[in-house]
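Appendix B. Chain record.
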Amino acid sequence: MLAKLFKDEMKGTSRLFLPLIAGFILITVLCKFAFETSFTIFDFNNYILQTITVIFFTLYFIYIIALYVLTSVFIVVRFYQTMTGKQAYLTHTLPIKTSTLINAKLICAVLWELITGVLFILSLVFFFLGHIHLSDIQTFIRDVGIIVKELNQYVNIPLFTAVIFISCILSLLSGPLMMYACVAMGHLFRTHRVLWAVVSYFIIYILIQIIATIGMFFCGYDMILWSNTATSVSNMVHIMERYMIFAVILSAGFTAGCYAVTNYVFHRHLNLN
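Structure tokens predicted for this chain:
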């Protein structure tokens, strides 16, 4: 059942995401063409070519922001429409657990986040094609290796890698789940549900920032900010490691909390009137 729901969710969201992705690919290709043409075929001092190149690059950077913002917007709009909007009656008449509905939508949201993220990285690689040689890549890899060896004196590399990996996964999950939880909390009100969902978002965001800031001081960041003497590299690394672990715990708890709130509201307090 989860697989079928996921398939339906992907089909429904594709109508939103595919035009966005196609537009980004198109503007990337045009921007690359204008950039390369300015250097190879024509005189780059030509004012018209300069103007065209600047326009395409401006559109490219605007589209990058739009790609990030609209990905979140499409995810929350789809969730709102199918869970509390016009399609909610059909969604909630299905003999399916609320958690299964949330899981299908969450997996779909994470997949689109990954697709848009990979697309952005590939667009950067596309721009560098023809300007980076194999020797440059080898030099870069060698330099990274040297940096890792230097950091290995102070940093627990396996722990650092594990924390980064877990943080990335939690980041993919927490973004959609936070929006889902806000929609759920807005659903608790009889009127102005969208407004209350937005208010809930800002309240949660502020609370998380406050907790994160308090955590920074508990982990020892105040020693760096207020100490009259220079903090050793070793101490700074230990402080950073403690805060990264704290951040992972906070993110995990926050992600689980958002999931629990969303599941509880739509399972116990569903009201489509």
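Further analysis of this model is presented in Appendix C.
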